[in-house]
Amino acid sequence: MGSIYGLDDMAELRRLQSTARHNLQVAPDPRALTPPRLLRQFLQSQLDELNNTGCSCENHEMILVGSQSFSQNHLRFVSAVCRNCRYHFHIKGDFQHSREYTADDHRHHMLIPCGQKSPDSLKAEQVGFNDTIGYARFICAIDDCFFNIEISVLPCRIEQEVINKFGDKNRMKRNLDLARAQDPERYEDFHDAQGLAVDGMLRKYLTDALNHTGARPLRINKRNKKFLVAFGSDFDPLLISIGFFEGEDAESGEPCWYISVPEEQKEPTPVRTLRARMEEALAELSILTRGATTHAWDDLLKAFQGEYHNTGMEFTSIAAMSEADTALLGCLSNYLPNYFSWAAITLAKLRLKDRDKYLDAGLRCIGDRNDDASTEIVVYKSQFDGTPSMDARVQAAFTFFGADPADVLTAGWFLERYYELVKCEGTDEVKAQAQQHLEAIGNYLGQDIVSEIDPRMAGNVGETGLMSSSPNGSGRRMSYSSAARILKVEPNYTPELIRDIVGHLVQEEKEDRSKIIEAIDVLSELKRQQDKPEAAAELQQIAEFIKATGDMPMLISQPPSSPKATAFVDTPPGLRNIGNTCYLNSLLQYFYNVKVIRDLVLDFDQVKLDLDDATLAQRRTGGNGTSVNLEEAIVARQFVEMLQGLFSDLQKTTEIAAQPSQKLANTALSSARDILEQPQSQPPPLPARPSPAPPVPPKEDSGAASDAVNVTVQSVNDKLETASSRSSQTLVDDNEDVPMSYIKLDQPVDTVSIVTPPATPPIDDVHMQDADESQPLDEKFAQVSRRLEQSDRSGTSQQDVEEIIGNILEHFMRAIRPDGPMAEKPDLQADKITKTFFTTIVNYTVKTKKGYPNDYPYLIVDHPPLNVEVVPERWITAYPEEASMASDGINPGVNGTSNRPCTLIQALDRYFKYEIIDDGNRARYSCIKTVPPILHICIQRSTPKGKNKNPVLIPESLYLDRYLEAAKGSPLWLARKRVWAINSRIAELDDLSRQVSKPVESTVQNSSVPWLKTYDNCYGDFKNLDTASLAPIVLEALAETVEDKELRHTILEDTRVRHKHKASDPLESETFKRVAVAVPGSVGAVPVSDRLSDALSDAPSGAPGDRLSEALRGYQQSLQEATREEVEALRQKEQDAFENMEKKYSIHAVICHRGGTAAGHYWVWIRDFKRNVWYRYNDETVTEDSRGTDAVLSDLNETGDPYYVAYVRDEMKDQLVDVPQRHRLDAENTPTAGEDVEMIEGVALDPIG
C-alpha cells in the first residue's frame, strides 16, 4: 500500500510526542482533547487545523466509502464523504504503540496537535490524484502511549454548480435544438430529452469503468444522441477530473470521450488513485440520487477511540457545567467525574505553569457529584500548597522526562529515562537538550547527575560543549569539583582569573592537556547553567584555542566602553556554540536579519523546488548554470527546513539564545557534493585574479584572429559555486586550479564555436553511493537525512565564513524555484538569491598601445576588446594593503604585520584595476554590469604567508558608480581612465617612498632603490673616487629619477587632454631643483653639477663615499616630502574624479574574525536602521551599541578583524533588512533588576575561540 498507510516507528512517534508536549508548554492558547471531544469537534467543523479548507458545513453526516476503508493489525483507516457538503475525509487511527487504559494515569487518551502541515505544504504535495486541502494530526501525550490519529480533507468531486446543471431541463432543450439545427434528419425523431437523467447516466459510466477488465478504455461517441443532449460540452471539466479524456474513433474518425482504465481492483482500494477518484464521485452520486449508503459512525468511533462511559446526567446538571472548563480539560460535559479529575491532573503535569487553572476547572466540573474525584484533585493540589513556585527551567526539565516534582524520584531514575530517550532518538540535538534538562534537575536536587552519565549506556553521548566523550578513561565525564581541582581554581572564579591560573598549567609539560581542556569545558557548562553565557563562551573559547594550538590565547585589552545594564529581553536572541560553530552562528544571524532570506525560509512552501524529474532536469543554479540532481535538491530542502525550525525558535524563544542543531551545522559545513560523496579535501578556491584567459592563439597566417572577441564561460562545476572568481584563498588554504572553457565569437559572423583547452574530465552529476535509482522519494529523503546526521562529535572543525556562505547560498538556490532567466545572462536562471546578492561582473581583455612603457595602464585602444567574460558573482573581493610579513599571531599590528591601512575603495580598486599582461601587448580590467540590492564584499585576508591583518577602513556609505560599465568616451569612462593612471602613479610613489625611507648607508651599500640600482655592489668603488668623478654619477642617477617622474606626469596629463606633451628638461623640473637646493652648500643659480661638486668638496672631512651619503640624506628628505605632497594631490584628484554618484549603499553588517588561518573566532556586527543602533552577535551573547555608526566603524577600522562586509541599497534598506525583536517574556521569566546583563558601547576584542 501507499505511504499514507505507513505507520511511524517508535523513534519518530517519540519525537512527535516530545515536540507536541513542548508546544503545549509554550503555546499561548494550548489545546488538549480526549478522543470523544476530538470526534465531536471534528464532526462539528470546530478543529482549527481544518478551518482553511473552504468547507462551511457545521454538521458532518459521514457516509462510508466502504471499498477504501479497512481495519488491519494496528491500523484503522476510514474513507468517508459528508452527506451535507460532500467533502471527503480520510481518517487513520494508529494503535501500534498504544497503551491499554488503566484506572490511574491512563483512563483515556489525551490528544495534542502534532506534525501539522500548512496549506502551502499541502499544495506542494498535490501530485497526481492527491488533492488534499486540509490536514490535522493528534498524538496522545500520556507517557509510553503513542496512539495518534490523522485527518485528511479532500474537496468534493462534483461541485454544486455542476449539480445544478444535472436537472436543468432548459439546458438539455437548448442542446437538442442546437443538435437539430446542425443535423435535422438525425434528431428528427428524438423526443426523449425530458426523460434524460444526467446523474444516472454518469453513474452508469463510472460503474462500467470500474467493472471493466479489458486493457482498452471504454468509449462514448460524442454524437450519441442521448449523450449529446444530456451532456453536450457542459460537463467537460467534470469528466476530465474523473478520468475521461477526448479522442477520435479509430475507424470512423468521429470525436469521442474515452474513460481511462483505472488501476487493478484491490481490497481495499488505495486512496488518491484514479480508481479511488471514480469511487468517490460514485459515492457522491449515490447521495444525490438517494441510493444505498452506509453510515460511517461506527468506523469513526473505532478509529478515533471515541467510546466512553457517560453519566446519564440530567440536562440541567450538564447545562450548569461551564463549556469553557470542559473545553480547557478536553472533555465532554457528560463524562464520569473521575475522567475530569484525571484530565485535570494530567494537564497540570504537562503544563506546570497553568497547574492551578486545570485543577480548579476539574473541581468545578466535578462539583458535588463525586467526593472521590474531588478528593483526588485536592490531594494532588495540596502537595504544592505553601511551597515556593518552581523555576520555569526546572519545570520544563521535569516535563521533558515525564516526571512530576511531587514524586520522590532519584538521580538514577532520571538517568534511566535519559538512556531510554537517547536510545530511541539519539540525535545530537536531543542529547544536548536532554543533558541540559539533566543539569537543571541536578541543580534542583543538589546532585551532579550529568557526571554520572555512562557513555556506554548512552551510545557515546555527545556534550553540548567542546568534548564529545570523556578522555579520562573512566567512561564518565568529570564533575564540577573534579574540574576545579584539576585546574587548581574555584568553580566561582571569573574567566579572567581562570585564564591566568590555567596559563601556568599549560606551560608545564607534566600536565595532561586533554584533562585541562575537558575541565575548562566542564566549568564552561557550569557557567552556562548559572546563567552566565558570556563567561561560558569565553571559557569554551579558551578550551578550543588550547586544543587547536596547545597554547593559551593572549589576554587582549579591551577598548573603553560605557556599559549600560539591560535585560536580555531587550536584545535579539543569540545562538549557542555547539563546538567551533562561531562561523556558522555569525552567518545564520546575518541571514536571519535579511528579510528576503527570512521570508524565504519561514514561507519555504511557497518557493520550494518540486522534486520531480522534469523540474530537476531544467533547474540550473548560480552564475555557472550548475545542474541539480535529486539528492542535491533533498540536501538543500532539508537544510532550509532545518533553518526554518531555527528561525522559528529565534522568533519564539524566551531564553537568551537558541541552539542550532548538529545536523544543520553538518549541512552548512559542506557542499551537497561533499555530503553525498566520500569525505574529501576542501573545495578549491578560484585563482586570485580571474583569468579572462588569453584567447586561443591564432595561426601564424591568420590576420583576422587578433580581432576576434572571445567570451569566456566558466565550466559547470559546483566547486566554482563555493568561491568568488577573485578569491585566491580562504582561511582554509587550497591551491587546486579550476578548468575554464572559452567560446570564440568571430566577428561579424554570428555562429559560435567552442574551444576547450586541455582540462580534467567533466564532472558527472552527483549520485549517492549505493543509491538505488528506483528508490521511493521518502526513502531517499531518509537516506540523505542519515548522511546529514553523521557526526562523531558535537560541533564541527574550525571553518571559514567565505567557504560556508558559498555552501549556504548553494543550498538556498538548489531548494527554490527559478524566477525566469537572468536579465544579463538569459542562458542562466534567476531566483531570489541571485536577484538579491549577485553582482554581474564583466571582465575585459584589451589591446594596449605600442611605444609606451608597459606600466602605463590607461593607454587603451578604442577598437573592440579581445575577450569579454560576463560572470554573476556572489560577492566582490577587496584586497588590503599587502602585508610585508603576514602572521597567524593573535594581535593585529604585531608579529611582523606591516599594519598599513587602506580605504575600502582602495581595496576594491585592486579588484577592478587595469592590469598589464603578455609583455605589455594586452591588458585586462573589470567593471560592474548590474548591482544587487544587497552587496557582499569579502576582504581577502588569506595569503601564502598567513593572515593579512592590515586594516581596511570601512565607510558608512559606499558608492559603486565608479565601477559601473560605461561606454567608451563617456565622462564616466574617462574618469575611470584618469583614476587608473592616478592609482598606478600612487603605487609607484608608495614603493619609492618605502625604498627611500631606508637608511642612506644601507641604500648605498645594497643599491636597492631604482635611482641607484645601476651601481649595485659598487660602494667600495665610491670610497676611492674623487669629487670630480663622483658628482656626475650622482647627477646621472638623480636625472633618471626626475625624467621618469616627469614622463609619468606628462602621460597623466594625456589622460585628461588626450594629446601627448613633450617631456620637459629633467634638470628644469621642480623636484630636481628642490633636490639640488637641499644639497649642503648649494647656492643661487649655480649649475646643478657644480653645486653638487661643491657640496661634496665642502662637506666635512672624510672619504668621498661618506660625503655622498650626507648629500643623499638631503635628497632623501626632499624626495620624501615631494612624494608625500604628490600623493596627497593625487588622492584629491582621485576623489574629485567621480561626481554626482547615485548608487549609494549603506553599511549593514560586518563579520569579523580574530586569529589566524588555523584557528580563531568569528562574530558579527549588524545594524538596526530603525533604532539607529548596532548589535554585536557573539555566539549566545548579543550586546547593543548605541554610540552610532561612526563610533562602531572607527573601532572596527583600527583592526584587521573585519572579514566579510554587507552593504544594502540605501533607498531599499527598510524593505530588505531589519533586526527582528524577540517576543516579550512573561513576568515570571524576566530577569530581575539584580541580574547583570551586559550591553556594550564599544568594540570588545575577542580572545581566540
Key terms:
8-stranded mixed β-sheet; 42 helices; disordered C terminus; single chain; 1249 residues; 7-stranded antiparallel β-sheet; 33 strands; alpha+beta
Brief sketch in words of this structure:
This protein is α+β, with helices and mostly antiparallel strands and 1249 residues long. Helices cover 39% and strands 13% of the residues. The strands form eight sheets. Strands 20, 24, 28, 29, 30, 31, 32 and 33 form an eight-stranded mixed sheet that branches. Strands 1, 2, 3, 4, 5, 6 and 7 form a seven-stranded antiparallel sheet that branches.
List the helices and strands and how they pair.
Layout: H1 10-26, H2 35-43, E1 62-64, E2 70-72, E3 75-82, E4 88-94, E5 111-113, H3 119-124, E6 134-140, E7 148-154, H4 160-166, H5 169-182, H6 198-211, E8 218-221, H7 225-230, H8 236-241, E9 244-248, E10 255-259, H9 274-288, H10 297-304, H11 315-320, H12 323-329, H13 337-350, H14 355-366, H15 371-382, H16 392-400, H17 411-424, H18 428-445, H19 455-458, H20 480-487, H21 495-507, H22 513-529, H23 533-549, E11 574-575, H24 582-592, H25 595-602, H26 613-618, E12 620-621, E13 626-627, H27 630-652, E14 657-658, H28 662-669, H29 672-676, E15 709-714, E16 740-745, E17 753-755, H30 777-789, H31 801-815, H32 832-837, E18 839-847, E19 867-873, E20 876-878, E21 902-903, H33 904-909, E22 915-917, E23 922-930, E24 934-939, E25 942-943, E26 946-947, E27 952-953, E28 957-959, H34 971-996, H35 1000-1006, H36 1019-1022, H37 1027-1057, H38 1070-1078, H39 1088-1098, H40 1104-1137, E29 1144-1155, E30 1160-1168, E31 1173-1178, E32 1181-1185, H41 1189-1196, E33 1202-1209, H42 1213-1216
Parallel strand pairs: 11-14, 15-19, 20-24, 21-27
Antiparallel strand pairs: 1-3, 2-3, 3-4, 4-7, 5-6, 6-7, 8-10, 9-10, 12-13, 15-16, 16-17, 18-19, 18-23, 22-23, 24-33, 25-26, 28-29, 29-30, 29-33, 30-31, 31-32
